[in-house]
Amino acid sequence: MEKIKLENLHFSYNQETPVIKNVSLSIEEGTYTTIIGHNGSGKSTIAKLMIGLLEAQSGSIIIDRLPLDEAHIHDIRNRIGIVFQNPDNQFIGATVADDIAFGLENHQVPSEQMQNIIETYAKKVSMSKFLNSEPTKLSGGQKQRVAIAGVLAMKPQIIIFDEATSMLDPQGKAEINALIQEIHREENLTMISITHDIEEVAHSDHVIVLDQGQIVMEGKPEDVLMHDQKLIELSLDIPNALKFQKELWKQGVKLSPCITMEKVVEEVCQLRFKN
Ligand SMILES: Nc1ncnc2c1ncn2[C@@H]1O[C@H](COP(=O)(O)OP(=O)(O)OP(=O)(O)O)[C@@H](O)[C@H]1O
Ligand SMILES: [Mg+2]
């Protein structure tokens, strides 16, 4: 089922300079979509349009077959969780526990269940020790973990991560990415991740490439990421697997094209076996 559909979307912040230009896209339920593009290409703007924080000049947004309009915005917001780039803008509570609870209160979760949910999700993001801390006194990465816990606790059907792990250290990033994958698999979540991490893109189901407010490439990562020259022209990175294959090529070793290091290792092992 089509979970999210954008049709001919146009948006400008000042009514003059177009920021989103005729964007149409469709995201299937339960899939993991990455959106990439250089700084200022319109990624966060699209995310804000999808949750109704900004209003498009023209075009339509349909979530779960409901049009994003005044009559449905409340219902749609209840189905979507979003974690932004900058964690400082997403805290309301006096303690970490209050903060995770905030969304739950809005969803009328009975208070006797609340404590259990707060503890479960704090544990998932390794923040159990900080439940009574003030959110403002946490580090950037810790704040981001709390924001992720707060969104996951509400059990949304769709989650948008707008560079949500960009402030985490490599281990934290790997942990949160693994957690996100686990939840995605377990709960049939529809996930959209806006990212500059090309390795993450290689592991997604679908990738959308934005440039100056327009979709310039779209499809399965194994198809899109093969256009390495185009990606470089768009100031984007290419996966390590492709860089590695290019080096091997220079040495006269040719592998079947692949975009993840896991697959490269598999290919190299097979080559060794053949020889
Ligand atoms: N609140 C705003 N008012 C006016 N212009 C804005 C505003 N927010 C963003 N823009 C402009 O809209 C364009 C798209 O910005 P957006 O934040 O969507 O880019 P992005 O792809 O998310 O970039 P980044 O990778 O840096 O996060 C940019 O040219 C930016 O300057
Ligand atoms: Mg952004």
Explain this structure:
- This protein is an alpha/beta fold and 275 residues long.
- It has two domains: 2-236, 3-Layer(aba) Sandwich (Rossmann fold), CATH 3.40.50; 239-275, no CATH class.
- The protein has helices at 43-50, 73-79, 96-106, 111-124, 140-153, 170-187, 198-202, 221-224, 228-233, 240-250, 261-274, and strands at 2-11, 20-28, 32-36, 58-63, 66-67, 80-83, 158-162, 190-194, 206-211, 214-219.
- The strands form two sheets. The chain has a six-stranded mixed sheet with strand order 6-7-8-3-9-10, with helices on both faces. Strands 2-1-4-5 form a four-stranded antiparallel sheet, with helices on one face.
- Helix 3 (96-106) crosses helix 4.
- It is globular and about 65 Å long.
- The structure holds adenosine-5'-triphosphate (ATP) and magnesium ion (MG).
- The site of adenosine-5'-triphosphate (ATP) has 10 residues, from helix 1.
CATH class of the largest domain: Alpha Beta
Order of helices and strands: EEEHEEHEHHHEHEHEEHHHH
CATH topology of the largest domain: Rossmann fold
Major sheet characteristics = 6 strands, mixed
Residues in helices, as a percent range: 40-55%
* Structural class designation: alpha/beta
Question: Which kinds of small molecule does this entry bind, naming each only once?
Answer: adenosine-5'-triphosphate, magnesium ion
Low-confidence stretches: none
Number of strands: 10
Number of domains: 2
Number of helical stretches of at least 4 residues: 11
Can you identify the CATH superfamily of the largest domain? Answer: P-loop containing nucleotide triphosphate hydrolases
Strand sequence of the main sheet, in spatial order? 6-7-8-3-9-10
Calculate the mean pLDDT score and round it: 90
Query: Which architecture of the largest domain does the CATH hierarchy give at level 2?
Result: 3-Layer(aba) Sandwich
State the end-to-end CA separation.
46 Å
Give the overall silhouette: globular
Percent strand: 15-25%
